[in-house]
Specification:
mainly alpha, globular
Length: 423
C-alpha cells in the first residue's frame, strides 16, 4: 500500500459507534472548546488581576484586549461561516487548534503591551469562531434536527465547562508559579489534542453514512422531514423581520451579560473576598450554567424558543436587580452563582432561535452574518463595564445598565412575529 493510500485511509476512517455519531461529534467539539476557552472572555475576566498586577497595567487595559480580540473574532465570522458550509470543519478546526496552542505559548512570553495585545487578538480571533461557537454550532445543526436546540445547548455546555476548567487551571498554576506558566502548559496540552479533533469531526451525518438524528429523511408518509432544509440567499435572510429582531435582541442581551460577567470577580474581590474564592464562585456558576443550558435547549425543542427566551431574560432580571442591594460576603457569593447559572444560556440563545428558522444548509452562513454583531456585543460589554466603573467608582451603574438592557430584550423578543417565522 502506498503512502498516499495509507494517508487517505486515515483521513476517511471513523469509528463505528453503537449510538448516533452526532453524540460523538458533540463530545469531540468539547475538546475544541477546552482549547479555545483558555483565551475566552470569561476566563480573562477571572484572571485579569493576575496579569495586570504583574505587568503594572490596569483593568481597563485587560478589558480592552478582551474587547479587541472578541471584535476581531466577529469580523472573521462571515468568512468562516461561508467556508464551513462549503468545505466542512475538519481542516479548519485542526489548524485552529494548532494555532491556538502555539499562540498560547507565545502569549506567555509577552513582555510589552503591544506583544500581549497582538498575540491575544490573533489567538482569540482564531479560537472563538473555529473551536468555540460558530463551527461547533453549525456541526450540531447539521447532525441534529428534532433535538437541535438541545444539541446546541451541549455545545454551550462545552464552552462553559471549558471556561470553568481553564479558569481553575490558570488560577491554581498561577498561585504556585505564574499566569505565564499556566499558558505555556495549556498551549502544550492543546497541540496533541488537535489530533482526535481532526480524526473524528465530520461536517454532516451523510459523511458517515447516516442521516440527521440518525433517522431516514423520508418517513412512511413520503413527506420530507426537513422542510426548511434549503439554501437561503443573503437577501432572503436579511428580508426576514424575525432575523432582525433576533439579531438586535442578541446584541443587547450579550452586551448586558458580558458587561457583568467580566466584572464579577473584581466585584467580589473589591468587596473583601479572596481571588481564589471569587474565582470559585464564577467557576461554580459557570459549571452549573453549563449543566442547565442543555435543559433549556430541551425545553425550547419541546415548546417555543421565543417563549423560553423571554422567560430566561425575565429570570435574569431578578438577581441582576438584587446586586444593587445585597452586601458583599456569602450572600453575594451565592448571588453570583445564581446569576451566572441563569444567564449562561444567553450566549447561545440567539443561535437557538436562528436555528429554528434557518436549517443546516445555511446555518453557518446566517450565524456568520450575525457573528460580527454578537461578538461586537461580547467585546463591548467588558470595556463598557470597565469604563463605567472607572468613571463612577461604583458597580451599581453597570447593574442598572444591564437591567435596562434586559427589558429591551424582552420587548424585542416579544415583537418577533410568529406568523412570519417558525418561531
Amino acid at each position: 500500500m502506498t503512502l498516499r493510500k495509507i494517508l487517505n485511509s486515515i483521513y476517511l476512517w471513523y469509528p463505528k459507534t453503537p449510538f448516533f455519531y452526532g453524540w460523538l461529534i458533540l463530545a469531540v467539539s468539547g475538546i475544541g472548546a477546552f482549547i479555545a476557552t483558555s483565551v475566552a472572555q470569561t476566563v480573562f475576566g477571572g484572571i485579569q488581576d493576575l496579569i495586570w498586577m504583574e505587568m503594572n497595567w490596569d483593568r481597563k487595559t485587560i478589558a480592552l484586549a478582551a474587547t479587541l480580540g472578541t471584535w476581531t473574532s466577529g469580523l472573521t465570522m462571515p468568512f468562516i461561516g461561508k467556508l464551513v458550509d462549503r468545505f466542512g470543519p475538519r481542516w479548519m478546526m485542526l489548524a485552529a487548534s494548532i494555532l491556538v496552542g502555539a499562540g498560547s505559548i507565545y502569549l506567555s512570553e509577552s513582555k510589552t503591551i503591544w506583544q500581549f495585545f497582538f498575540c491575544y487578538i490573533v489567538v482569540r480571533s482564531i479560537a472563538g469562531p473555529n473551536l468555540q461557537n460558530l463551527i461547533p454550532r453549525t456541526v450540531a445543526v447539521n447532525f441534529f434536527q428534532k433535538r437541535r436546540n438541545f444539541a446546541m445547548g451541549i455545545t454551550a455546555f462545552n464552552r462553559i465547562a471549558g471556561e470553568s476548567i481553564n479558569l481553575q487551571i490558570i488560577t491554581m498554576v498561577s498561585s504556585s508559579f505564574s499566569w505565564r506558566t499556566a499558558y505555556r502548559t495549556l498551549g502544550a496540552i492543546a497541540l496533541p489534542l488537535s489530533i482526535p479533533i481532526f480524526l473524528l469531526i465530520r461536517h454532516k451525518p451523510e459523511d458517515v453514512g447516516d442521516f440527521p438524528d440518525g433517522k431516514s429523511p423520508v418517513p412512511e408518509t413520503g413527506e420530507s422531514v426537513n422542510k426548511n432544509d434549503r439554501i437561503w440567499t443573503f437577501q432572503e435572510i436579511i428580508s426576514l423581520p424575525s432575523f432582525w429582531f433576533i439579531m438586535i435582541a442578541e446584541f443587547v442581551a450579550v452586551t448586558s451579560t458580558s458587561m457583568i460577567i467580566f466584572q464579577l470577580v473584581p466585584f467580589l474581590t473589591d468587596g473583601g473576598m479572596t481571588q481564589m474564592a471569587a474565582a470559585a464562585a464564577l467557576t461554580t456558576g459557570n459549571l452549573l450554567a453549563g449543566i442547565s443550558v442543555p435543559g433549556w435547549g430541551f425545553l425550547t425543542d419541546k415548546f417555543t424558543t421565543k417563549r423560553i427566551a423571554i422567560i430566561i431574560i425575565c429570570l435574569a432580571l431578578i438577581p441582576t436587580t438584587l446586586f444593587l442591594f445585597i452586601p458583599s460576603g456569602l450572600v453575594s457569593f451565592i448571588l453570583v452563582i445564581t446569576w451566572t447559572v441563569i444567564t449562561g444560556v444567553v450566549f447561545v440563545m440567539g443561535s437557538m432561535m436562528l436555528g429554528t428558522v434557518f436549517s443546516r444548509s445555511s446555518f453557518g452562513t446566517v450565524t456568520g452574518i450575525t457573528g460580527p454583531t454578537r461578538t461586537a456585543a461580547m467585546g463591548l460589554g467588558p470595556t463598557l463595564g470597565a469604563f463605567i466603573i472607572s468613571s463612577t467608582n461604583s458597580y451599581n451603574p453597570v447593574f442598572i445598565t444591564a437591567i435596562l438592557g434586559y427589558f429591551v430584550v424582552v420587548f424585542l423578543y416579544s415583537s418577533v412575529r410568529t406568523e412570519s417565522s417558525p418561531l
